[in-house]
Design goal:
By secondary structure, the protein is mainly beta. The chain has 3 helices and 11 strands. Helix content is 8%, strand content 30%. Strands 2, 4, 5, 7, 8, 9 and 11 form a 7-stranded antiparallel sheet that branches. Strands 1-6 form a two-stranded antiparallel sheet.
Length: 227
């Protein structure tokens, strides 16, 4: 499959972010820059997921659901995963939030591509990512900071999980929560004042995880074939 990256930035980096732990009782600062309502959930696709739309489901978890063990994304044929996440406007990304597992099935090397369309595993393995980060083995939510100068005009992200912590012993990689922090601009470049919620309200989110429509629709599917 052919791929294309829109060059919104002018350099690439292979530095490793340092994971941190979230503070469960300190909701307000965590929500101030959380990019949730700005994600185009229906357009999220995941390659090599064992359960269809499970990649979308872990991104659709609200902040209040971040520690819930299910739904969970598991890889299928091997330990690698490729997740495409578009936004509804332009984002200046600050950090990635991820909850994994203390087991060897936790992802280890995460390569992040900004504004790359139609990446497959071959392209993700051969192209230079915008930034590479390392993910720790822990059941805590990790906030991994990114180099903001590299993610100034981000309209989509492709996350390539290259391996896990098993050193080739485990072919399954597991993730239970994925979120993002940053600043959001609509495509018309007008600034946006976003209202954040400390807990999910099913009446406001028709397709929230846990309801009947949580896993429906979209084009993501399991296996390592194209999107």
């Amino acid at each position: 499959m052919s791929s294309h990256c829109h060059d919104e930035t002018h350099s690439h980096d292979h530095g490793h972010g340092v994971g941190g732990h979230d503070h469960s009782d300190d909701l307000t600062p965590a929500l101030q820059s959380l990019l949730y309502q700005q994600i185009d959930f229906d357009a999220i696709t995941t390659l090599n997921e064992s359960t269809p739309h499970s990649g979308r489901a872990i991104v659709k978890k609200a902040w209040a659901e971040r520690n819930e063990p299910t739904p969970e994304l598991e890889s299928d044929a091997d330990e690698q995963l490729l997740i495409y996440i578009p936004f509804t406007g332009s984002v200046k990304l600050h950090s990635v939030l991820v909850r994994t597992t203390p087991s060897p099935t936790a992802p280890q090397t995460l390569k992040i591509f900004a504004n790359c369309d139609n990446l497959d595993f071959n392209a993700a393995s051969s192209q230079h990512p915008t930034q590479t980060i390392h993910v720790s083995q822990t059941s805590e939510v990790q906030e991994i900071p990114l180099k903001r100068a590299l993610f100034g005009g981000t309209q989509s992200l492709t996350l390539f999980i290259e391996d896990n912590h098993s050193h080739g012993e485990e072919e399954v990689t597991r993730i239970s929560y994925l979120g993002f922090k940053g600043e959001f601009m609509r495509l018309n470049r007008e600034p946006v004042n976003v209202l954040y919620e400390a807990a999910a309200n099913p009446s406001d989110h028709k397709n929230i995880v846990g309801t009947a429509n949580a896993m429906g629709g979209g084009i993501g599917r399991g296996g390592r074939d194209g999107i």
